[in-house]
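Notes, p. 3: input format for complexes.
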Amino acid sequence: MERIIITGALGQIGTELTLKLRERYGEENVLPTDIKEPEDEQLKGKPFEILDVRDMDRLKEIAATFKPDTIMHMAALLSATCEKDPQLAWDINMGGLVNALELSREFSLQFFTPSSIGAFGPSTPKENTPQVTVQRPTTMYGVNKVAGELLCDYYFEKFGVDTRGLRFPGLISHVKEPGGGTTDYAVEIYFEAIRTGRYTSYIDKDTNMDMMYMDDAIDATIKLMEADASRLEDRNAFNVTAMSINPEMVANEIRKHIPAFEVDYDVDPVRQGIAESWPNVIDASHAVRQWDFEPKYNLAKMTEIMLEAIRNK
Ligand code: AKB
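Output follows (313 residues plus 2-amino-3-ketobutyric acid):
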C-alpha cells in the first residue's frame, strides 16, 4: 500500500482515514474523493476529486491519472438511511462496490471495504457471535453488506484481487459526526452532554451493541492492509469490536465527568428494531489470531477523550 484512493472520504471514517493515511504515506500519495467538495479545514485546499461511485468512467479517469496501488472504498449509505430508500441504497452500496472491485481487477489494486455488524440478523447468535455463522439480516443495509462480503471473497478467489475488510461495530469519534446510522446515538450523546447537558435517546436504555473508538478502527484498518497475506484465512469481513455498550452505560460513564447529565428515552421503532436484530457482542478472536487486532480504548478511556475533545472544539 503506497498510493491510495479513498472513496467516501468525507464520511465519518473517511475523514479520519484520510488524515491518518496522509500522515503515514505522504500527502501526495493519498487521494480522497467524495460526491461533494470538502468543508473541513483539514481537507480543504489539498488534493481531492469529486466522484459519484456509481460513475465507472469517472472512477477510471481518476485512477488513470493518479496511478494508485490501493483503493479504500468507504462510500456507502448507513443502516437507517438505507431503510428510508432501499432502492437508492442498493444502487449506491452495491453499484459503488462493484465499480470499486472492477477497478481493482483492471488496475491490479489492493482493495479494502468495511462490512458491519449489520451483516448479521435476528437468527444470528447474539452473544459471542462467531466469525462464520448464520447471516440472515432483515435490513437493506444488511443485505448489501452480506452480498458485499461474498463479492469481495469472489473477487479474491476468482480474479486474485487482494481484497480485505472488517465488520465494523458502531464507531465513536469527535472529528466528524456520523449520519443515518443506528449506532449514531453513541456519538450524539457526547456532543449533547457538552452542548446542553441532556440527551434524548432513540435507542432503549438496555439495548447493547458493539462499539469501537475511531482511533482503534483506523489502526485496525491499516494493520489489516499491511498484514502478511499468508496469515489471512478469512481475509474479508473480520469481526472487530472493543466494547459492548448500551445508552445507560454511556450515560453513567459521562456522569462521572458531568454529574448533572440527564438522559431520557423516546425510542424510535425503526432504529430500535434494527438494533435488536444485531448481535449484543461479537467474537473478534479471528482478527486477534490472524493479524494481531488489539483495540486500546475501553468505555472509560474513550469517554474521557470524547468529552475533552468536544469541550475544546
Ligand atoms: C450503522 O449504525 O448503520 C453503522 C454500522 C454499525 O454499520 N454505524
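The two ends are 33 Å apart (CA to CA).
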